[in-house]
Amino acid sequence: MARWKQSWSDDDIKKLRALAGTMPVTMIAKELGRTTGTVLAKAVEQNISIMHRTDEVG
Question: Which residue range forms the structural domain that includes residue 14?
Fold first, then answer.
């Protein structure tokens, strides 16, 4: 079964909480083996603040 079809385990959520705010969502998704969309959706569901990538101008 593809990883994106699997449920989130307690360990997955703990890892998401630990990584949130320490790296961009794209890197968190890669670390968890999930898409950025599923990581963002789970973060919103769990009320976890995620660092979003922003391009610096100037």
Answer: 3-45
- For residue range 6-57, what is the model confidence (pLDDT) as tens digits? 799 999 999 999 999 899 999 999 999 999 999 999 999 999 998 665 555 5
In one-letter notation, the amino acid at residue 48 is I
| Per-residue tokens: 29 | 């998704």
Task: Decide if 34 is inside a domain.
Answer: yes
Distance between CA atoms of 58 and 54, rounded to whole angstroms?
13
List all residues 6 or more positions away from 23 whose beta carbon is below 8 Å from its beta carbon.
31, 51
- Is residue 18 within 8 A of residue 4, CB to CB? The reply is no
In a domain, 12, yes or no: yes
Q: Which letter does DSSP use for residue 4 in this model?
A: G
Two structure tokens written together for 57: 């101008």
